[in-house]
Amino acid sequence: MSTSDRRNGRWMKREDERILEYLDETGLATPALISREIFKSISPGHVEERLKMMEYAERVFCGGFESCEMTLTVKIYLNGQLDVSNRPTPTVDRVLR
Fold it and tell me: Rounded to a whole number, what is the distance in angstroms from the first to the last CA of the chain?
């Protein structure tokens, strides 16, 4: 599935797609692992920030040991069958509350 076929939210960044694809492949990962495995110049801290935004928007679930996994709806989204543009829109203020 091409990323252009997906209907993402306006708040999403291009690295969010890669993070979700990586979680789809691996199932579970930490921000440090994601940063090291798929990005050359994006820090674990930035990956963690993006994961928190996606967790607020119910794209991922972050549990113990700082590990995150994608939610069931993400598989549908990655296949281009879910329009997430009208789902909850995270903002830094909402996420950090």
Answer: 35
